[in-house]
């Protein structure tokens, strides 16, 4: 019998009357991404154990994923370079969108630590990864002719000197999340 202080049940212990809690879409995607990266490392010659993985392997993985991308990125010599909505097709390559890569790195960064990796050695948290993502973002923005502008935080009423925080803003929004 469980101790009186512990009242929760894991998904493995749930009784017949309660359905087990299924993982969120984010958790499922994070697991898929983690497994895909692990498979990528295993397919290297020679196979690369996760414990020896560094930011260069992560960068190679991101470049490898470009072949499966669906975002047209015009090259500087293309007649449509810098046009947000080109009037005709061209032969420029399809790449992974910056936002997809950024979200992927966020999930892999979390998965690395959840799977026993140390935050200090997390290859997904490397400065080289941040630089690569910034370069991809800027390159894609120039190719589309749309400059990337960082969204500014909306100040809450408490930050503007008001009495209480606006009820429509959440604590998450102060960290740049919707």
TrEMBL record:
Residues 168-178 have a biased composition (Low complexity). Pfam families: ALOG_dom. InterPro entries: ALOG, ALOG_dom. Keywords: Developmental protein, DNA-binding, Nucleus, Transcription, Transcription regulation. Residues 1-27, 144-178 are annotated as: Disordered. The keyword Transcription regulation applies. Residues 25-152 form the ALOG domain. It is found in: Nucleus. One of its GO terms (molecular function) is DNA binding. Its main location: nucleus. This is Protein LIGHT-DEPENDENT SHORT HYPOCOTYLS 10.
